[in-house]
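Could you please review the protein record set out just below?
***
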Amino acid sequence: MKMMRVASLCKALVVACALVAGVVAAQPHIVASVRLPGDKAHFFLSNGTYLRFDVRSNAVDPGYPKPVSDASWPGLGGYALQIAAAFNGPQGKVYFFLGDGRYLRYDTRDTRVDPGYPKVINDANWPGMGRYGAMVTDALNWPGDKVQFFLSNGTYLRFDMVANRVDEGYPKPVNDSTWPGLGPYVGSLTSMLRWDDNAVYFFTANGEYLRYNIQNDRVDPGYPQRVNNRTWPGMGDVLGRRHRRVMP
């Protein structure tokens, strides 16, 4: 009887651990981020929802997260779980890159995906990016009409939106030489957002973030920090409950 009780206890422990692991795994993370008119930052999450962060009040707007649907983002709803990256393009356009090598162009003035999308990422519409289309994991607006595309193999491309092509010499590895202070986190980056003329925020899969100084060209001292309701008011409730799993 004693052995049976011990076996039952062990089994219950295994089930409890599995449930905890499932809860941890179920915690969403940011997969894409863009700034829209009205000083709003939109954070798209891995579970198909999004947060709207008010820059002026420094808090998530009431009522969020909300589902990414054709009601909230006309034309984008069917791709909510496929979004891998996003960035702000010219003339009020936002580009969403999908995990399968396609992309959509969203018009913020008409508030809908433009007709004819999604399209395949190839060298005709994104010169120099054709072979990397399905590898894009993050996108970042950069000074000089550039967009930095981070790839799943730990490298990045720099795309010139004016010249409409990848700059020469790319891809390059993401390391402490190319992105000082970012090297140790290359495998855990999930999203990035240019906040203003000098600051970029990088978000990681384990609920942390880093602030990158564009002028100094390095991660600011004191980072990474946790995403919680002190650092990102309203985001901690959604993103800040994740803990690192300690493997035996």
About this structure: Confidence is low (pLDDT under 50) at residues 1-25, 242-248. The longest strand covers residues 30-36. Residues 2-26 form the longest helix (25 residues).
